[in-house]
Structure prediction request, 255 residues.
Amino acid sequence: QFIVRRDNHKTVIAGYPWFLDWGRDTLIAARGILAAGRTETVFDLLSEFGRFEENGTLPNIIHGETVGNRDTADAPLWFCAAAADLADVKGVQTVLKHACGDRTVKDVILSILNGYRNGTPNGIRMNPRTGLIYCPSHYTWMDTNYPAGTPRIGYPVEIQALWIAALGFAAQTIDASFEEHRKRALESFLELYPLSEGGLSDCLQNEDGSVQDDAVRPNQLFAVTLGVLDEHPALAASVLESCACLLQPGSIRSL
Prediction:
């Protein structure tokens, strides 16, 4: 009921009755769709959203043929994550050569990473000192426009996890020079995000990332599930322990 046809490809409806196909929701769901064995559907999702990629941005939401809302820092990086997951199943070259309009998945990933590194038209950019990614307000799945609640302006933890994972995939499969960027970002991540009481900061606030937000949210779990902390088991364990207070029967709290 949620995987739908759009033009010649597929997208995912974010939620009935109000939401249409959102970039981040579609590409997050791609991991579960792939786990269900529906690989051709995931190829379709990459084709549909990849053809709209521009200067490191993807549509936040599609309205008919209107794709101008690009205020999302996570959708482009989830595109990279979905491609990496699909490559594990179908092979790297098969995925990288897959068509996204007039380009390939490889072309789209390179455009995303270079866009983030050099700065996108909508304000996403890499901090040249730390190698981490700055996000304006209301660019992730768990923030709102000020003063509604949680703007999360700065360096949200899950964006860094997605960025480091994307750099790692690109370094292994496309261009080894991305490894230098991955190492620098990971080094900064390990230095700046761990909290003294355990777990990771939800967001480094301010443009320079000088203030740790110690709110406990499940976003830090992406650092574990995306493999960023594979070589740091003690820190990964502290993330799980920190998030344990969010657990309730059948779900996990957002805050």
